[in-house]
Amino acid sequence: MRTQSTSKAHHACDEYMTLSRRGFLGAAAAASVPVWMPRVALGAPGAGAGQGRDVLVFVFLRGGTDMLSAVVPYGDPALYTARPTLAVPAAQVTNLDGFFGLAPALAPLHRAYVDQKLAFVHAAGSTDPTRSHFDAMARIETATPNAPTVAFDGWLARHLLNVGALGTGLLRGLALGDLLPRMLAGAPASLPVADPSSFGFPGDPLTATARRATLAGMYARAAPPIGPAAANALATIDLLDAIDFPNYQPANGASYPASDLGGALASTAAMLKHGLDLEAVTYDYGGWDHHANMGPLTGQLATMLNDLALGLDAFELDMRASGARWTLVVQSEFGRRVAQNGSLGTDHGHGSCLFAMGDGIAGGQVIAQWPGLAPGQLDQGDLAVTRDYRDVLAEILVNRMGATNLGALFPGFTPTSVGVTI
């Protein structure tokens, strides 16, 4: 039986609870075309075919993940001063480079790291100073830190609009959830599907053919965008219905966890191996707002980190030698404060850590301009951001996904090389 990836969030702040109840769809996205209906592709269909671009698999950890308990800077003694009872002991980490190490719950990722398929970019994040979940998510997903107003469209949507569609362009972006995330707001040919295995034509199968023919006839002569969008919706149903999700068998002995994340990653692997012309798949993993009883070794944080590690490990192993091109990124809206609070948890912070995984990633390294965790080195009590997250995304988009117009994707920003891709 599949378990829920998200915790019950009784440990979370009121703002996060409000966000969780109403979902993470941005106000701009909510005002757009109904989310069940794929948009007509704006890129030239087939323009990207054969260009060897990767599919971006993006996992957003919503709630502000404590990356100091995940990719642990055990070589910085100030960590243990600030967290006398909460820091992951140096003796229990899996060493990465002599300074950073993986928490026990993330140990399954060591194999991909050693095989140079996984890299970490630490002390990374947004330059926007906000410690609000809502503001940080909106700023990160629209790539508008420090701007007077938040943009309507997401950075990933802008990318899809600025490159030609791969193949038919029928389904370019897919959010594995009930709603499109803000990063896909305004994206062409993109839609949310909570469970691809059940995305079939609804109703009684005995009458499905007749009902489908009726609907197709109704919309066949409808003017754009309604007519083409309806045709795309029916074609997308056929596209996903052709994949045998329930009987999918992972390769190379990979075993996905029985969780929402595990199911989402297994479905993604099935779609990529089937050869869908997807260009981006996103998954929202919530519940990381651990203000109380965080439990980095045996509690709620450890449980969630282990689920994340098992899912990513299975996906990387499953996709090996598959012939599919992909890059996976893991990000949270911000990190946590360095000092533990009085409830054995941590409060909203700033600097965080990004994960990058894939055949085109320069793995086996932790990329960091480490600012230090001593009181005088902190940003208002938080890990300082020394690497803009847009540097990481820009390098991946250019080197792995065919982006050529970064000015349109990240307005007013000039990226710096990170060295995260081959």
Which SSEs are present, and which pair or pack?
Elements: H1 14-22, H2 27-30, E1 55-62, E2 71-72, H3 78-82, E3 94-95, E4 101-102, H4 110-114, E5 118-125, H5 133-142, H6 155-161, E6 173-175, E7 190-192, H7 205-220, H8 226-241, H9 260-274, E8 280-286, H10 300-319, E9 326-332, E10 352-358, E11 365-367, E12 387-388, H11 389-401, H12 406-409
Parallel strand pairs: 1-8, 1-9, 5-11, 5-12, 6-7, 6-8
Antiparallel strand pairs: 2-4, 3-4, 5-10, 9-10
What key phrases describe this protein's structure?
13% strand; alpha/beta; 29% helix; 422 residues; single chain; nine-stranded mixed sheet
Structure summarized in a few sentences:
With 422 residues, the protein is an alpha/beta fold. It has helices spanning 14-22, 27-30, 78-82, 110-114, 133-142, 155-161, 205-220, 226-241, 260-274, 300-319, 389-401, 406-409; strands at 55-62, 71-72, 94-95, 101-102, 118-125, 173-175, 190-192, 280-286, 326-332, 352-358, 365-367, 387-388. The longest helix has 20 residues, at 300-319.
